Every structure is written in C-alpha cells, then in structure tokens.
Amino acid sequence: MKRNLLVCLTSMIMLMSCNDKDKMLTSLKGYNDAMESKGYHFGDQLVLPKEITDHAETITISFGDKETSGLKIDPNFFALGDNKVTFVIKTKNGETLNQDATINVFTKALEKNIGYEIVSEYPHDPNNFIEGFLLEGTTVYESDGLAGSSQLIKYTLGETKPLVTEKQANNIFSEGCAIVGDKVYQLTYQNRLGFVYDKNTFKRLSEFPLPNALAEGWGLTYDGKNLVATDGSNHLYFLDVNDPSKVVKTVSVAGNKEIYDKLNELEYHNGFIYSNVWFKPVVLKINPNTGEVVGKFDFTEIAEKNMEGNEEHVLNGIAFKGDNMLVTGKNWSKIFEVAIKN
Ligand SMILES: [Ca+2]
Questions:
Q1: pLDDT tens across 303-312, in order?
Q2: Are 279 and 147 in a shared domain?
Q3: How remote is the CA of residue 134 from the centroid of ligand 1, in Å?
Q4: 96: CA distance to ligand 1 center in Å?
Q5: Which pairing describes strands 235-240 and 227-229: parallel, antiparallel, or unpaired?
Q6: pTM, whole model, 2 decimals?
Q7: What is the band of 11 on the pLDDT scale with cuts at 50, 70, 90?
Q8: How far is ligand 1, taken at its centre, from the CA of residue 12, in Å?
Q9: Where is the domain boundary, 105, 130, 165?
Q10: Record's PANTHER family (predicted)?
C-alpha cells in the first residue's frame, strides 16, 4: 500500500512537472512568435509571461558563442535585424528547457523617403535581362542573366551597341558584377561560381567558388575594401577581395518596422550601399556598418511604365553618375538618371 502511494505521488509530481514544462514552452513560443513580427529596439526589456518567470530559476539567451541573462536588447549582444537565438531556461524543478527563436531588432529612426527628380533618359537594350549594372566614366558595365543568354557587356552611356561582349556558356546564369581596379568580378545565380575578368578586354582571368554562406549569387558591389554580395536574403555579405569565396562579415538589413528580405542589385556610393528589393520598385539606402536602412526611394511610377505588364521585368539596376543615380530594369528600354533631392 505504501509503495503504491509512493508510485502514485511520484507520477503525480512528474505529471505536474510535465504540464509546467509544456505550459512554459507553449507560453514562450507564443511570446516569441508575437514579438517576432512586432520586433524590438535597442534598450528594450524582454517581458516574458508569468508562466515562465514563475517557474524559472534562470533564463539565458544564447547566440552562437555568446550568452546573456540580462533579458535586455543590448547592442553589445544583439545585432540589428534577425538574431537567431536559443532560450535556455532552468526550471525550479531542476530541468533545462531549450527553445529556438528569432529576435528581430528594428531601427529607432524611421526610414526617410528620399525624393528624386528624373533629369535624363538613356536607351537600354530591351533584350537584356539585366542583373549587374555600374558606370565608370561614361562606360556602362552590365551583366545580363538567364541561362542561354548570359553575358558581360560594356557600352557607352547613351548607346546600346556593346564595345565588348563576353557570352557565357549555356548552363551559366550571370548575376551581379563589380569593378575592382582593372578587374571585373561577376557572380552567377545557382552555378556556385564567380568569375574574374580583365576590365578592358573581358578576358577571363580566373574563377572562384561562391562562399558556402550564400544560398545563391545575386547582387555585387565594391566598397573600396571588400566586395559586397547579396543572395536574395536580408543579408549583405562582405567578401575578401583577394579571395571572394571568404566571407569576412555579414550584416542583416532592417528598418524601423521590418527586416528587408530579397536584397538584390547593389551599388556602393559615398559610404552607403544602395540595394533594390527584388519584385519591389524600391531602392534602399543602407548604412553598411550597421545594416540600418536610413532611407528609401520609391520608383513605382518608373517601374510600372517600364515593366509593360510583365511581372518579371522588375527594377534591377542601380549605378551612380556623379551624385545622380542611374536606374534601369530587366528588359527595360530605358535607363533613368535621377537627381537625389534630400
Ligand atoms: Ca550596381
């Protein structure tokens, strides 16, 4: 009888503990899911539900090799954008609970709407499914995509006939390009390769494997120190220019209310990185040190006129001509020069 009572009591305690554990995990998941879309700002305190705090001895958030039990969005610990963390809770019963979560940190300041005025228009070859776009002097360097029609070309702004053309093999899908010194670097979409060319002749000098961290090759630019690439996510990947298969730094891009996903064609200019968002007629102005979106351009009107009802023909080209921005898109027949107003 005594033994039975003991078994019964033990089972009851275990059942209670199990219930508490489930409640805590469910409650934590509910809290984290709600906060993921709402996001935090630096300095915010995490206010976890009572179901958790009442039964927890300690609560720790771990993030790679770092951990904090401060339950505060401390900039020494969290980065702007998405932080993939694990909550580790030691319960008063001596159990350890783990749960993965994403802690989104948004910027304090709102993104500024940047005004512009179209000051000039130039022709663009509408056959070109543009991926990479930049200007040096009066010469446009353009990388065009799609398997079977991928190429690297250069032409004088105002004309469309290429001065030099380098066609890719049929299985290659070209993506973003950037100039570093006397070389052009070019990414490919899913071939997991990048190419290096002589800037003048487009003679292929070498190739490099796409870093493992990048899901695909999308946009590319050069900030004077590193190549900077996108892969369709919310990240800017800074690559070692001497070995572009090495990622030296990754920055997550966020604004006041959102993480910006599908970052695409890039252009570095005067300390900022400009990126378009795939399938949106928007160009972001990003602080490359923090990932903060400080401003954005709305090119809806230009994009609608030039897409001509084809949803694939999105805005996909940013370059700079002095302090004016050049924008174009996939298969557009025009390049627009815009003066930036603020
Ligand atoms: Ca560009």
A1: 999 998 899 9
A2: yes
A3: 5
A4: 49
A5: antiparallel
A6: 0.90
A7: low
A8: 65
A9: 105
A10: GLUTAMINYL-PEPTIDE CYCLOTRANSFERASE (PTHR31270)
